UniProtKB/TrEMBL annotation:
The lineage of its organism: Bacteria, Bacillati, Actinomycetota, Actinomycetes, Pseudonocardiales. It comes from Amycolatopsis saalfeldensis. It holds the Pfam family Methyltransf_14. Residues 251-407 form the C-methyltransferase domain. SUPFAM superfamilies: S-adenosyl-L-methionine-dependent methyltransferases. This is Methylation protein EvaC. Residues 11-70 form the Methyltransferase putative zinc binding domain. Coiled coil: none annotated. PANTHER family: BLL5978 PROTEIN, TRANS-ACONITATE 2-METHYLTRANSFERASE-RELATED. InterPro entries: Methyltransf_Zn-bd_dom_put (IPR013630), Methyltransf_Zn-bd_dom_put_sf (IPR038576), MeTrfase_14 (IPR013691), SAM-dependent_MTases_sf (IPR029063).
């Protein structure tokens, strides 16, 4: 990974050189669940990530066309998890006490999905607008009284919103900014739309936690960038903004809520400097930790394949739990097909009867999990382990065991 052949120009933020350090090989679009009769025209790409040697942004080497990932049939729904529903309600209540306390405030959410965050803001009577390209998710939001523009957020979108609605006091986004390779256009839009003292707040998975937990399945087509505090700070400066807040969160296995403002509008909070110092001490912007991460990934892959093979040889039944986007990276990188895992249970009706991307594991409704219970369940949705295990406590009471692979392969 250290040879000059792995260094190339192409950082999407600053144009600097990328040092490629992790390659998961041939991967499908993570949310492209297939009809059993339509598996011959599947799109694949090389999933590899690199570190920019200039601004330290970690990013994909290849870009998947956004129309293949985010379209009207995009299946993910933010409100599908009780934990996430509570999280977004708390986020909204926090903003209502702070950035949106003025009756005339205006909030915009980039990637609002089914409107679970904006619902609380709408019920409080605060002017709002969501922007999301998934028409079916938008329809769910609109049915709840949420105002949404069904399109991608870009500079022209933002200018149109500003002309029609005025400046935004809050621009919020959760687990979406990292999905967008064209951040130059997005942040020009943020700058055009944001009020003089407004803030742009976004939550995303944290590179430090991904490396620390060896949660390599957080790397998939949608997560084009893996943010650190240092790389976000450099990105903000490049786009005429300033990083003034960086709050650690446990969501999705470890995230940070970043707050950006116009330069000088707000004083940076102490945690920004504290986290930057922690990253320097940990060598988060260097290659040594990245190489250790690659070694841990290989260890997880070998251990998981060995365990699943041994269980199958012993006649044990193993099913997957949670047809998540990130499970595409795991199953395709490890070659986990129906020879090792019978099927995957998931609560999303739109996925039932379909096959998972690439490895084509059948997706079945939650009822199939107990008909009868398997011996083992491979928990793809490990970031919701506590919620899921509480829900499925009968499974364990009857002798069932969970297989987890973050931060290492282990059985619970």
């Amino acid at each position: 990974m250290d040879s000059d052949s792995k260094i190339q120009y192409g950082c999407r933020i600053c144009g600097g050189r990328l040092r490629e350090w992790c390659d998961f090989g041939r991967q499908p679009v993570s949310q492209s669940f297939r009809d059993p009769g339509a598996t011959d025209s599947e799109f694949f790409f090389r999933l590899a990530v690199g570190l920019c040697l200039s601004c330290t942004m970690v990013q994909h080497v290849e870009e998947v066309p956004r129309s293949l990932m985010f379209h009207e049939n995009y299946p993910y729904r933010s409100s599908g998890s009780e934990f996430m529903r509570r999280h977004f309600e708390e986020v909204a209540r926090h903003f209502l006490k702070t950035e949106l306390a003025d009756p005339g405030s205006f909030a915009v959410e980039i990637g609002c999905n089914d409107g679970i965050m904006l619902r609380t803001i709408s019920e409080a009577g605060v002017r709002h607008l969501g922007v999301d390209p998934s028409r079916r998710a938008v329809e769910v939001a609109q049915a709840s009284g949420i105002r949404v523009r069904p399109e991608f957020f870009e500079e022209e979108t933002a200018k149109a919103i500003r002309a029609a609605e005025g400046p935004a006091d809050l621009i919020y986004s959760a687990n979406t900014i990292s999905h967008i390779p064209y951040l130059d256009s997005l942040f020009r839009g943020v700058s055009a739309l944001l009020s003089a003292n407004g803030v742009c707040v976004f939550e995303d998975r944290y590179l430090g936690d991904i490396l620390g937990n060896a949660s390599f399945d957080q790397i998939y087509d949608e997560h084009f960038y893996l943010f650190s505090v240092r790389s976000v700070q450099a990105m903000a400066v490049r786009f005429g903004l300033e990083l003034v807040g960086a709050e650690r969160m446990t969501v999705h296995g470890g995230s940070i809520r970043y707050t950006l403002a116009r330069p000088g509008a707000r004083a940076p909070r102490p945690e920004v400097a504290e986290l930057l110092e922690q990253e320097r001490e940990q060598g988060l912007d260097g290659t040594e930790q990245l190489q250790r991460f690659s070694a841990r990934i290989e260890e997880i892959r070998v251990d998981l394949i060995r365990l699943l093979g041994e269980l199958r040889a012993d006649g044990k039944r193993v099913v997957g739990y949670g047809a998540t986007a990130k499970s595409a990276t795991l199953t395709n990188y490890c070659g986990i097909g129906t020879g090792l895992v019978e099927f995957v249970c998931d609560s999303t009706p739109g996925k039932h009867g379909l096959l998972t991307p690439g490895m084509h594991l059948p997706v079945r409704p939650p009822e199939a999990f107990a008909s009868p219970y398997p011996d083992y369940a491979l928990l793809f949705a490990w970031n919701h382990a506590e919620e899921i295990m509480a829900k499925e406590r009968v499974f364990q009471e009857q002798g069932g065991k969970w297989i987890l692979y973050v931060p290492k392969v282990h059985v619970v």
